[in-house]
Each structure stands twice: as C-alpha cells, then as structure tokens.
Amino acid sequence: MTLFNVTQARRIASGFFPDPTICEKPEGGYLMVNSSFEFFPGLPVWESEDGEHWGLIGYAMDRPEQFSYDSMGNSQGIYAPTLRWHDGTYYLIVTNVNRGNMILTTRDPHAGWSDPIWVDGWPGIDPSLFFDDDGTAYICGNEGSSGEEKPGIYLAAIDPDRGRVLTERVHICGGITGSNPEGPHLYKRRGMYYLMWAEGGTESGHMENIARSSAPFGPYEMYPGNPMLTNRSTHLTLQAIGHCDCAHIEDDRTLMVFHGTRNNDEYPAQGWIGREPYAVWFEWGEDGWPHLSDQSYDTPLEGDGSAAERNVSWITPGIDADHRYWVMAPPHRHHEEADVALPPQDDGAGAPNGPVEGGQESHLAQSDGATAPNGPVAGPQVDQTAQSDDAAASDGPDGPEGPLPATITVDAIEQDFSLQAGPPLIGTRQTCFTCCFTATVADTGQLAMGEAGIAAYANADHYITVAFRAAEHGVCQVEASVHNADLVSVVGRVQALAAHPLTLVLEGDACGYACSLIEHPFPDGGFEANEPVVHDLGRIPGKVLSFSNAGGFTGTLLGVYAHGAGAVTFTDVTYA
Q1: Do residues 367 and 327 touch, judged by C-beta distance below 8 A?
Q2: What's the pTM value of the predicted model, to 2 decimals?
Q3: What family is this protein classified in (predicted)?
Q4: Which domain, by its residues, includes 194?
Q5: Is 27 designated active site?
Q6: Could you read off the pLDDT of 163-182 as tens digits, one per residue?
C-alpha cells in the first residue's frame, strides 16, 4: 500500500450521517440520503446543485407508519439506503434490520415519500437497485444472516414497484478478502457493468473495491488496484473510509461520496462523532478503470469550511408515540442565504419533515412564537440551521451572532435510558469535537421525582449526563455521571438551591467533555440580581462514547431528558 497517496476530502455534512448514497436529479444537481438506524425521523435527504454545498431538505421516513420500531435496540433500524431515479420516480431501497428490505418512492423529494413496499424473498442487508438500458431493474445485496449462504454479493432481477424478486438469487462476487462484503452498487459505463462494494468491516479495516463484467451476472474481473479506496494501516485523522456511491459514472470525471470517522490524536486514536459523508471527484483511465488505487483521504480534526458544523436537527432514538417532547424553534437568521430553499409546510399528511423556520413544528400549524410550545412531535424534526454551509463555517452557527436557542418541554415518565419505554431523550447530532451544549431549567420544582438534565448519548448503554435530581427540602443535587455499560461513575456532585435557575453545561473538545453547572441566584427578585455561580463538575473522557468502547454504527447525540414524573421545560437549549 502506498502510505503517502493522500488527498484532502471535502466533508459535506457533519455529525453521524453514514452510508451515503447519491443520485443525479434529471433537472441537474444531486440528492443524498444516509442511514439513520434507530433514530427518528429517519433517512435524512440532502440536496445540492454542485455536489459540494449541501442542505437538508427533509426526511424520507417522517411518519410513524413508515417505521417499524418493535423490539429495536442500539444501532438497529434503518441501514444503508440506495437512491436511484428511473422514469420519473425516485426509488429509495433500504434495510430495516428488524423486519426486512423495503422500497420508498416519490416523484418529488420535497413532497414526501411513500409507505414502504416490502421486498419479499430478499435476505441480507445493504440492498441496491440498478436500472439497465432496457428497463430491467436489478437488486443486489449481501448474504443473508441464516448462515446458509456463502459471504458475498448477490444479484437478481426485481419489480421495484411491487417489491417482487423475479429471478434466482445469484452469487456474483465474494470480495477480495471474504471479510464482510457489503454495500454493493452496480453501474453501467460504456457497455461494461461495474460492481463496487465495501469490505473489511466498518472500522479500521474498511475499504472499497471494484470489479467489472460484460454482463450483470458476471463473471467479474477484479480491479488490479483494489482496494480503490482505504485508510487502513494509516495514522490519518480520517479513518474507516468506504461505503462509496457514484454519480456521473458515464463521464470521464465521476463524483463519489463515501463516509469516514474523524479520530483524535490520542493513542490509540478515538472518535465518537460518528461516520460522516465526504465527496471527491476522480477520473477514469483509458483502460476503463478508475484512477484510484490504495487511495487515502484525510481531513482536519476540526472544520475546514467545507460543511456546516452547527447543524441542529432534533431527533429521538425511536418514535415519540406518546408525544412527550415539545419543541419550540426560534426564527432563523440569514435564511436568505440557504443553499437549498426551505420546503413549504404541508397539512401533515405525508408532508416532508424538513427544516422549519419561524417558531413552527412540522406537523402542526404555526404557533405565535410567543409562549405556547409547538405541540407534540412524533418525530422532533426542527432544524435550526438555515444558511449556507460556507456562511456557517465562516460566521459561526446562524451567522456571526451565534446559535439560536430552542425551548424544549419533556414529559417525564418512570424510565431509564433503555429504549423499551420509548425515546429516553431528544437531541441533535454532535458535529465537531470543540463544542458546547447547554440548557437552562428555570424551575426545578417541575420535576416531582427522578432526574432531568442534558446528555452526550452514544447509545442506551453508553452516555454522559449532567443532571439534577428532584428537590428535597429546597435543595437539588446536581451530578455529572458517566454510564459505561453496567458501570456508573459519578464524576462530580454539588448541591444547589431548588429556587435558583440552573444552567447545565457539557463542553466538548478532542479529549472529551468538561461538565459544569451555572447557578443563577436571585435573592432580590431579579434573575440577573447576582452574578451566576459556576460549579466545576469534572471531566469525562470521550472514549467512553467511541466505537471502540460503545460499539454500534451511529455517533453522539447531545440532548435533554427527564425521567421520573413531571413536565420539565428546558430553555435556552443551545449548541455552539
């Protein structure tokens, strides 16, 4: 492997948006969709005119009836979509690992997506669609989980409008190592069929390979330069690159998206933001192979101006069927600079749950933006970022004045962070190491029992909290804790007067999180009568949330929660 064949890659979205799939729009420009796993709303849809600047326009899975959530656990749910356009329709094929493979369709990605069309008789994960010149549609994916099939990539013809597999399932490729071949995509370029797939697992051994054939079912000739893309055996910041998809496959210059993780400088290096999408262009040689061989890509640890780093999109692990989370989003600044126009609000019947502005909640009419919350959210899909990526990178979130806070009310129930009683928190993806997440509770007496606070959440077994417990005798106990599987450690503890408003703080950097409490005394009747008191609650290493420790396929969510009894309102919820 050529260790110095390294090029800088452009990150096109920040935070865990893994398994990117890209599709050219017939009128020009591109769409991209990512995996969402157990989080809802799911299948985020992005749009770009140039392949470099992207804006979130909504979610393909934004209605509870689209999302089977029964018995779902960490990193289950929605895996590895593929988006293709054919004859006026966008087809989005994806795996729900708790039920099977399915297809969603739309003629207008701004106007909502269909209910799932379930694909019968197609096991395995990471399905992909390919439409040949004669109109024949093919489905490819990897082996089923029963252990009866040999590892590799399988292909068959399919009727995508009815989800019916039409031909025998044929093994067409076993990979180059035999280690987890997955994420296949089939293309046709100048009369030849090209099969691309990921291999080597999703972490340090991740890679992308390519082969070609004169017929869809093979036999396939392996590219002599495989792996065409990998960062294995390097100490680059960007790791675990792979899971590619391409646009402009017929041209001499092709646009490719892939994902990767940013790791810090510790030894061994750690990353907990998650797998993020990148975009690069590559050229083809006269021999019909891509000019990529052992190609590595890198990125700075922190933002380089290529992607907005303060996207705020409220999501929950699972569906908020009991309407426990109420979100009030403020009006946007600089919305006229958006890369992609914000979608109009619909009446809620199949409407896209994309970015909303001006104190709106996606399924309800616009509130007056004054005191009332926007209402219950089945999927808390409010996006506070509505400016161009480059503007966000240069001026900071929502422009030079900084991020806009939200107000979130949580109806507490007796639960912990398990997923069995519904979503344990509501949050937004962490998009960079250096960040600060805060929330203020003006009245701790809203919590009758239990605890409430903020969290850095990797999954239901690995998370960090800064939280207060229900007051006793006029005093609240505030703790910073780390939950590492069955081990719970209290890092810092302080007592605060229950009558004082409390601001809970998680401040992130490349090593982890500093936890603190800001207590706002107001003995003379005014919120600003006295200087706030800052309580240092200690530091917690981020490696607790990393892939190497927490496992799974997602990333870190920064959010608020309330467990116990009562309705807790968090004001000035800010990600900066």
Answers
A1: no
A2: 0.88
A3: Belongs to the glycosyl hydrolase 43 family.
A4: 6-298
A5: no
A6: 999 999 999 999 998 788 99
